[in-house]
Specification:
It is a peripheral membrane protein. The protein is α/β, with parallel strands linked by helices. It has a domain at about 5-85 and about 175-190 and about 205-315: Rossmann fold. About 30% of the residues lie in helices and about 25% in strands. The chain has helices at about 50-55, 85-90, 100-105, 110-120, 125-140, 145-150, 160-170, 190-205, 215-225, 240-245, 250-260; strands spanning about 5-20, 20-35, 40, 65-75, 75, 95, 175-180, 210-215, 225-230, 235-240, 305-310, 310-315. The strands form 2 sheets. An 8-stranded mixed beta sheet has the order 6-7-8-3-9-10-12-11, with helices on both faces. The protein has a 4-stranded antiparallel beta sheet with strand order 2-1-4-5, covered by helices on one side. Strand 1 (about 5-20) and strand 2 (about 20-35) form a beta hairpin. The longest helix has 18 residues, at about 190-205. The mean pLDDT is about 90.
Amino acid sequence: MSASPLLEVRDLRTHFFTRAGVVKAVEGVSFSLEKGEILGLVGESGSGKSVTGFSLIGLVDPPGRIASGSIKFEGRELVGLPPAEMRALRGKRIAMVFQDPAATLNPVLSIGQQMTLAVQAHGRASDAAARDLAARTLTRVGIPDAAARLDAYPHEFSGGMRQRVAIATALLHGPDLIIADEPTTALDVSIQAQILAEMKSLAKETGTALVWISHDLATVSSLADRVLVMYAGRIVEAGAVGETLRAPRHPYTRGLLDSLPAMARPGEKLNQIPGTTPSLLSLPPGCPFAPRCPRADAVCATDPPDVVTASRLVRCHHPLEAA
């Protein structure tokens, strides 16, 4: 492990200041990421995963903003960085792959035009050189006859192919960090497996680090090196992916795993975590998971401690026994 991590996040708090009150979407999140490492960020919808990703790349729109905390990329503080300097990093050194490529690709520009513009946004390159780089990058993510496909439009591609275009666009400048926000959710299993293999190969061969945001624990278990489990804007468990998912110590992580269809016996009802995620405008005192937790008692009305071992962090008054 290097002396200085590629990315270091400390006590990040991203809030949305609405008329109804302050929505604390990310509250006290801390983690680090090494070069070439793949970090999985998991949790239910509304847990703060995507807002964490948008915060890292400076794409939180009003009324949201980073209220406090630190995001350091190669030791450089990104919080408060002037917009022009952030734009110089975004796309070149730090890239993002969004969940829905149909919403991020311009329908009236060809794939080649869009990728050429992305290349030229961060350096002087002729149209021919930019198109050549775009074709080589599309080939890298498995798009056949890439040079000819540059003249196609997004609607002429399948969902899986559009997602490959989005990933290729993120790879154009050889970024040091890619943030992927549920990029394979809408894809069929075979295409998903191919993309996961490509991303693992990318991290291994080039040293690109990945933050993989997903609600799919199976995907994260096959891809990531470490996993952060988020609930109500907080990290409730963190550790090596294999150890954490084989023997979870937080009741919420256990509940997520028990809810997987593979955990149910044929003919039986699927397990589920009771209740719903709390409103971030009116969180309960203490542990936000307490109203849904089978282990909760009176002490859970106070803030849970961080139970830290050599390889695991668990934020809970009553963690499950270590296996």
